[in-house]
Amino acid sequence: MDSLSIGQLARGAGVTVETVRYYERRGLLDQPPRTPSGYRRYTPLDLWRLQLIGRAKRLGFTLAEIAELAGPSSDGQRSRAAILTAARAKIMAVDERRSELEQLRHRLEQLLEVCASGDPVDCVDLNLAT
């Protein structure tokens, strides 16, 4: 397979054609060469990059973070170091969010207790200790 149409590329990566165009506008994908009639033509490397973007998104990276991580690197080391740094930061953010969710769960359990056996006014007012 020498080249792919935008539809083939999108299907291969499990995204929509509009997503491909959006990623091009954001600079996540290079503008592809066009046929004489104006159709975009993509390479298997473009498909790989689009799939990489999808994997990074599923790991919780934003498009801005992905653009920085997937940017060009002369020796590959900057990319590796940047990915390690970003992954560590993402783990810290996940741990922080988990802590926030545990606190939220505790407050919701308090609400259940107040509503089940406490003062009905406190229940309706969501009057909980923080």
Can you characterise this structure?
By secondary structure, this protein is mainly alpha-helical. It folds into two domains: 1-61, Multidrug-efflux Transporter Regulator, Chain: A, Domain 2; 72-130. It has six helices and no strands. Helix 1 (6-13) packs parallel to helix 3. The longest helix is centred in the C-terminal third of the chain and has 41 residues, at 77-117. It is elongated, with a radius of gyration of 23 Å. The mean pLDDT is 88.
Features:
mainly alpha; 0% strand; 66% helix; 6 helices; Multidrug-efflux Transporter Regulator, Chain: A, Domain 2; 130 residues; 2 domains
In short:
This protein is mainly alpha-helical.
Radius of gyration: 23 Å
The SSE string, one letter per element, is HHHHHH
Backbone structural class: mainly alpha
The CATH topology annotation of the largest domain reads as: Multidrug-efflux Transporter Regulator, Chain: A, Domain 2
Number of strands: 0
**Number of helices, counting only DSSP H or I runs of 4 residues or more:** 6
Q: What is the 3D form?
A: elongated
Most strands sheet: none
Can you identify the CATH class of the largest domain? Mainly Alpha
Tell me the β content.
under 5%
- Approximate helicity band: 55-70%
